[in-house]
């Protein structure tokens, strides 16, 4: 006999008792990413930091790469609704965008990153009980896929950008203070020569200590009238959705602990900013983001931080 979920042992069918969900208002907070034609092209510059594994046979487990970048990010609206079928509550409809991201390094010029994906606007749900959210579904050719979901808000004025760092740490523990960490991870100090670091000539010590400072420098002196903030994470906090998946080469194993370089968590904040023209002309749109991917290898978590400031073309 084939068991359906309703007849499977131990299953108690709850029925559909929840009220119909509030519909998403089309693209909602994602609407500024595209124009009236449903397309949006953004271009700009950024900064990428990544700890890469160095083969243990060389007696050193990491290599720090610090890149200045150029970026192109293209969005296309998905026509119509994206239906999600409900069991414990009525169906919901999402609305979304596809995107393609290209990031290239400068000094030296090199291709660094290609990422296709989808952003979606998700309405309030009753089961689970979750406020309206946005979700980013991304595929990275290195062999990782991510689903990061979170909340959004719109505020007057510019973004509130906090400091961050790239200090390695043991999973479950807090990173050490920078001065203490650089005594162990000497690659963090640009004044200390090492064969296990590569950086563009214009990278400064301040950029190593706080990658988000690049974002603050980019908007210094600007009159930002309002900011839409998208805060997403794979950690199921505060939204119970998301996660990462890796190929066998990257996936955590017992030798070495943490796999070759397992992407375990992704957190990102995107700021869509309305910038006043200094000469009294039309306002323009600007997109900034900071993203931290935790790469686990050889028993430690190594923050991979990327930031960028893009203008809508």
What attributes does this structure have?
single chain; 313 residues; mainly beta; Lipocalin; 3 helices; globular; disordered N terminus
Spans where pLDDT lies below 50 across 5 or more residues: 1-18, 20-24
Strand content: over 45%
CATH architecture: Beta Barrel
CATH class: Mainly Beta
Q: Looking at the structure, what is the overall shape?
A: globular
Order of helices and strands: EEEEEEEHEHHEEEEE
Please indicate the count of domains: 1
How is the CATH topology named?
Lipocalin
* Total count of strands: 13
Helix content: under 10%
Rg, alpha carbons: 22 Å
Mean pLDDT: 90
Distance between the termini: 60 Å
Strands of the widest sheet, in order across it, are 1-2-4-5-6-7-9-11-12-13
Q: Structural class, from helix and strand content?
A: mainly beta
CATH 4th-level superfamily: Calycin beta-barrel core domain
- Could you describe the largest sheet, including whether it forms a barrel? 10 strands, antiparallel, barrel
Number of helices: 3
């Amino acid at each position: 006999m084939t068991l359906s979920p309703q007849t499977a042992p131990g299953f108690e069918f709850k029925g559909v008792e929840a009220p119909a969900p509030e519909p998403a208002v089309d693209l909602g907070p994602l609407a500024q990413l595209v124009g009236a034609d449903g397309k949006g092209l953004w271009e700009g510059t950024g900064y990428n930091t990544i700890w890469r594994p160095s083969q243990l046979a060389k007696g050193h487990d990491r290599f720090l790469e610090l890149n200045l970048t150029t970026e192109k990010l293209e969005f296309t609206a998905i026509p119509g609704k994206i239906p999600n079928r409900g069991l414990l509550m009525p169906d919901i409809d999402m609305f979304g965008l596809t995107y393609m991201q290209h990031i290239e390094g400068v000094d030296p010029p090199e291709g660094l990153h290609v990422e296709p994906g989808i952003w979606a606007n998700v309405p309030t749900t009753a089961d689970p009980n979750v406020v309206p959210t946005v979700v980013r579904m991304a595929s990275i050719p290195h062999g990782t896929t991510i689903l990061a979901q979170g909340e959004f808000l719109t505020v007057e004025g510019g973004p509130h950008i906090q400091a961050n760092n790239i200090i390695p740490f043991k999973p479950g523990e807090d990173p050490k203070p920078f001065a203490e960490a650089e005594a162990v991870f000497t690659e963090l100090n640009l004044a200390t020569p090492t064969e296990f670091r590569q950086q563009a000539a214009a990278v400064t010590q301040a950029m190593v200590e706080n990658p988000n400072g690049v974002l603050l420098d980019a908007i210094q002196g600007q009159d930002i009238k309002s900011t839409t903030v998208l805060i997403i994470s794979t950690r199921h906090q505060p939204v119970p959705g998301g996660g990462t998946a890796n190929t066998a080469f990257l996936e955590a194993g017992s030798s070495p602990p943490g796999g070759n370089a397992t992407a375990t968590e992704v957190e990102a904040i995107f700021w869509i900013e309305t910038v006043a023209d200094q000469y009294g002309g039309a306002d323009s749109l600007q997109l900034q983001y900071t993203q931290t991917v935790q790469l686990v290898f050889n028993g430690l978590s190594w923050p991979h931080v990327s930031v960028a400031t893009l203008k809508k073309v």
